[in-house]
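JOB MANIFEST
job_type = single_chain_structure
chain_count = 1
residues = 139
[input]
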Amino acid sequence: MKIDPIRIKSYLAEIRRNSSELCELVDQNELAPNSLPLKAAKYILIELAEAMSNTIQHVLAKEKGVAVSGYIDTIVKGHEHGILSEELFQRLKPFFDFRNSLIHRYWTIDEKLLIENIKKGKDDFDRFIEEVETYLNLQ
């Protein structure tokens, strides 16, 4: 089976758009606990996780014939199969762990820590795009 380039481009465009919006929220310096911008950032993070997971899952299924069983498994197998570098894998794994907390235990999230992590990791999403594009160009 072959990777669908239109599908991959669509996922990467969604990641690019959401990454840009997240960076805009950070640059405006409006992220604060219980704020509307932070609520928007949480939703953007969910969309980023979905699109990133869909990207890796599609590449694994179509190119490697590898099935995944959830978000964490997707990123682990993406790393194991050379789609993501060790450094990016280590940076994104906590993000995917956090995605599960955001969806299933949103009431227990330390919003100050979340804001720090958003600021620290906001460039990881563009790096993800670069690594996926590089991987696909080498195949």
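[summary]
Residues 36-64 form the longest helix (29 residues).
Helices lie at 5-27, 36-64, 71-80, 86-104, 111-121, 124-138.
exit_status = 0
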